[in-house]
Design a protein that fits this description.
This protein is mainly α and about 130 residues long. The protein has two domains: about 55 residues, no CATH class; about 60 residues, no CATH class. It contains twelve helices and no strands. The longest helix has 15 residues.
């Protein structure tokens, strides 16, 4: 039992003896912080904008209920990619990176007819 508990109980007894008008006048003289101090946490948060409500929560609680794209926003790029299927990881790479490490025939597999024609022309120019 602390001094704060004693003060809170004393104030509650005093306020119980007040008329509604006296209680209202007393509360109006209090600062917003003082009015919130005795309330349970869920009452203190009522009426606050969402970002203010989240401020005191641990990070995992702040993320609860957010859509996946919002969850990923704050992560470094390598963390955002963790867990994606290989084809999705490849799709996000620039074309030259996608081809690295593939056999020559594998590199040609995804090319369009136009891209194959340009590649043949480029090879002819280099040989000639």
């Amino acid at each position: 039992y602390t001094m704060a508990d004693f003060m809170r109980e004393s104030l509650e007894h005093i306020m119980d003896d007040m008329t509604d008008d006296q209680r209202q006048a007393f509360l109006e003289r209090m600062s917003p912080e003082e009015r919130l101090r005795g309330l349970p946490p869920e009452e203190r948060l009522r009426g606050l904008p969402p970002e203010e409500r989240l401020r005191g929560l641990p990070p995992e609680e702040r993320l609860r209920g957010l859509p996946p794209e919002e969850l990923l926003r704050g992560l470094p790029p390598e963390e955002r990619l963790r867990g994606l299927p290989p084809e999705e990881l490849l799709r996000r790479l620039p074309p030259e990176e996608r081809l690295r490490g593939l056999a020559p025939e594998e590199r040609l597999r995804g090319l369009s007819a136009e891209e194959l024609r340009r590649l043949k022309d480029l090879l002819r120019q280099q040989e000639g």
